[in-house]
Each structure stands twice: as structure tokens, then as C-alpha cells.
Design brief:
Elements lengths: L2 H10 L11 H9 L9 E5 L4 H14 L4 E4 L11 E3 L2 E2 L2 H18 L3 H15 L4 E5 L16 E4 L7 H4 L3 H8 L9 E3 L5 H17 L4 E3 H4 L1 E7 L5 E7 L2 E7 L4 H17 L7 H9 L1 H5 L6 E4 L4 E3 L5 H13 L7 E5 L7 H8 L3 E6 L10 H10 L5 E3 L3 H9 L4 E4 L2 H10 L1
Length: 428
């Protein structure tokens, strides 16, 4: 059986109108599979920004320690298979069809969503291959996310920001409460450094209260470890200093930026809880951070994907993510206002906020619309860009055309959405 009919049916479930939060359907799917997620330990990661990178770092470190590690992330950039990996080997087309076909049949009976079926597929695949541990990234929120059926070794919450507000709430407090929904009884929770100073204390109170209600401990990464960026290099790798109590360690990593330093701090604060179960040495940590892209296949995090001309790919899709992109390129020594920026995004994102944050980079803004029903039209983007004060704007019929035209004019940054990244990589 070809994989295309199955994926086409799955993708048809992804329309915006079919987002349905709740655990009833994923529990039903998993019961039909004899609850595969109970057959291996897991580490559960939620947050707005940084959760994919944090998952990748933890996975890479555990792989370097010799463990068989499942990694479930979303969305993908080029292939659906990227979402489900074991030791950076993607699930095969054959396994997707074999596991996915009966799940689709069951899913139709209960009106399951794309993400619920995909999550059940990952759970089953990891159980079949007897992983030593699975690293699971939430899709949206936490409390009602399909991944939240697990009882993990540790719950990790990365930086919280405004996103998916139509589902998670319009305030940072509501969003934090939804993310805090992954906190479970007697499961330690680790919280990464938060962004805005104005909301830090509020979020600390939320996580402390939720942990107390769950009778578990909460560790705030900024209380136990400090990570400082030593240098960011033109190839967009970096070196950092990690101050952990009386110990000072130096690391290099293929993920660059002050935002990645915060993610490293979250990982370092998580490791003591993982070490209660798995043997992890200092060399494993060092190699895991250095080889995180090679060990996990993570892409699109301020990533240099081509030289001559320089092309940087970034999947940031909210204002703070775009700010991290701008800051990282500046710290790596790239000049402001020197980039051809290819930009597209989803209608439900803060696109004006993103465009305003992008301005220091842009020489010419190339606007495009990826082939996804939630994507904003080029015309809509053009209006927002004028509102943000852009003067040099070029509009394109497709992402591919935008990328091709931009690369003729100088160094290129592609950003705004995973879906833009997908089509840009294909065009390149």
C-alpha cells in the first residue's frame, strides 16, 4: 500500500476547524493498542518556545549515553516521518502504513484528530521497538494535549509566550495554566527561564501552586544553573559556559542563540532527575550538546543550510521567536538590514508583531503564502507589512518563487512558519 492515501487522509484532518482538545479520544485509541505508552519511561516537554530544542538536547545526551531513545516532535519540515524517530532513524513508510491504517479506521469511529492518531502511532512504534525512554513534545498547550496521557519520569516546561490563544486563552496566565496541566502527582517538574520580567513572578506562583496541588517538587532552572553565551560563530554554532553550583563547564553546541542557552539551562536542571534512572556522564552531556543536530535531525532553529549565497532557515512563528532569530544573527556578526527575508505565516499568529521584530534584518521583504489552509494571503501580509513600516516589499505567487528570487539578490533568511520552511527547503 502506498503511503500517500493514508497521509492525505491524515492531512485532511488538519484543517483549522478540526482542532479538538481533550483526552477522551486518545485514551480510546490507546486502549485499543493496550496502552503502549505504559511500556517504557518517558520525559514530557511542554512550552511555547524551545520545547523542540529541549527535547532534541535531552534525546541527544541519552543517545550518547548508549540508550535507545524515542523522540516524538511536531510539526515536521519535509516529511511526516520526521515526527517519530528512534536514535534519529525516522519511522519508515511501511511502518506508518502498518500502524496507521488500523488507527485511522478506529479514529474515524470516534472522530479523532490528526494529532491524536499520530500520537497513538508514536506510542505504538516506541513500544514495538522497546525504547529505553521516549522524549515527548506536546502539540498544543498541555492539560488537554494528546500526549498528556503519559505518566512521565519528569515534566519539563520551557518558555511560555502568547500562542494558540483561541484555544489556550487570551492571557499569559491562562496559557501558563494550560501548560502547567502536564504536572502530575509525584512527578518532578522542571521550569525553564521565562521571558518577560513582568510575568515571571506570576508564572512562578502558578507552577508552584500546581506542583503543590500535585504533591510534587518544582525546580526553576534559573535557581540552580546559569548558562552564559561565550561566542556565536558565523556557522551558527556556539560555545557556552555552564555554572552549576561550584562547577564550571564549557560546551559547544550546534544550536545557537541566547534562547538556546536558556534551553540548555533547562536541560541541565532536568538531568539530575533523569540520572536517577539512567547513567549519564559528563562526556555524554558534552557530546550530546555538540552533536544535537546529527543525533536528532533537528532543523530550522536559526540554521545555516546553504552558503554562496548564505541561506538561514528558522521556524519561529511568534514575536519572541523572531526576536531570538534577530538577536542570534546580530551576535554571530551578520550585518543588519543586509538580508533578503522570505516570510509567510498563519492567520492565527501575531504576524504584525513578528514583522515589527524582523525589521533590523530586512533589506527586502519577500512575502509568500505556503500551501496550507490557515496561511494568510500575500495581500493580507502586504497590508500588515505596510502597517509595520516596510518600504521594500516584494510579493510572490509561491514560497518557491520567493526563495528563488531572494537568492538572486543576496543572503537569505526564511522564517515565519514550519510550512514556509517545508516549501523553502523543497525549493532549495
Amino acid at each position: 500500500m502506498s503511503i500517500e492515501p493514508l497521509l492525505n487522509e491524515l492531512y485532511a484532518m488538519m484543517s483549522h476547524s478540526k482542532v479538538k482538545l481533550g483526552l477522551t479520544r486518545i485514551q480510546s485509541l490507546c486502549e485499543r493498542l493496550d496502552n503502549p505508552y505504559t511500556r517504557y519511561p518517558s520525559i514530557h516537554v511542554a512550552g511555547t518556545n524551545g520545547k523542540g530544542s529541549t527535547c532534541a538536547m535531552i534525546s541527544s545526551i541519552l543517545q550518547c549515553a548508549g540508550y535507545n531513545v524515542g523522540l516524538y516532535t511536531s510539526p515536521h519540515i519535509r516529511r511526516f516521518n520526521e515526527r517519530i524517530r528512534i536514535n534519529n532513524e525516522m519511522i519508515s513508510d511501511e511502518d506508518i502504513v502498518r500502524i496507521g491504517k488500523p488507527l485511522l479506521e478506529s479514529g474515524r469511529e470516534i472522530d479523532a484528530t490528526f494529532f491524536e492518531i499520530t500520537t497513538a502511532m508514536a506510542f505504538a512504534y516506541f513500544a514495538e521497538h522497546r525504547v529505553d525512554v521516549a522524549i515527548l513534545e506536546t502539540g498544543m498547550g498541555g492539560r488537554l494535549d494528546a500526549t498528556n496521557v503519559v505518566e512521565p519520569l519528569a515534566s519539563v516546561i520551557t518558555q511560555i509566550d502568547y500562542d494558540h490563544m483561541e484555544y489556550l486563552g487570551a492571557t499569559i496566565e491562562n496559557i501558563a495554566l494550560e501548560k502547567a496541566g502536564i504536572i502530575k502527582s509525584n512527578v518532578p517538574v522542571i521550569v525553564g527561564q521565562q521571558g518577560a520580567e513582568s510575568s515571571k513572578q506570576l508564572m512562578r506562583q502558578i507552577f508552584e501552586q500546581r506542583a503543590a496541588e500535585a504533591h510534587t517538587t518544582v525546580t526553576f532552572a534559573e535557581d540552580v544553573v546559569r548558562v552564559e553565551v561565550d561566542d556565536i560563530y558565523p556557522d551558527l554554532s556556539m560555545s557556552v559556559s555552564v555554572i552549576d553550583g561550584d562547577l564550571l563547564h564549557y560546551y559547544t553546541t550546534s544550536l545557537a542563540g541566547a534562547h538556546q542557552a536558556r534551553n540548555i539551562a533547562t536541560v541541565m536542571a532536568t538531568l539530575p532527575h533523569i540520572k536517577n534512572v539512567y547513567f549519564i556522564s559528563e562526556d555524554h552531556v558534552r557530546d550530546g550538546l555538540r552533536l544535537v543536530d546529527a543525533k536528532t535531525g533537528i532543523e530550522g532553529r536559526v540554521q545555516l543550510i546553504r552558503t554562496d549565497p548564505t541561506v538561514v532557515l528558522d521556524v519561529s512563528h511568534n514575536p519572541s521567536g523572531v526576536q531570538a532569530l534577530v538577536d542570534t544573527l546580530q551576535q554571530a556578526g551578520y550585518r543588519d538590514h543586509s538580508w533578503q527575508v522570505v516570510f509567510g505565516g498563519m492567520r492565527d499568529k501575531d504576524l504584525l508583531g513578528m514583522l515589527e521584530r524582523l525589521k533590523p534584518l530586512v533589506s527586502t521583504l519577500h512575502l509568500c503564502t505556503p500551501k496550507f489552509d490557515r496561511a494568510i494571503s500575500v495581500g493580507g501580509l502586504e497590508q500588515l507589512s505596510a502597517q509595520a513600516g516596510y518600504q521594500r516589499i516584494s510579493t510572490h505567487d509561491s514560497v518557491a518563487d520567493a526563495v528563488q528570487q531572494a537568492t538572486l539578490r543576496g543572503p537569505v533568511v526564511v522564517c515565519g512558519s514550519f510550512y514556509v520552511a517545508d516549501e523553502a527547503v523543497a525549493a532549495l
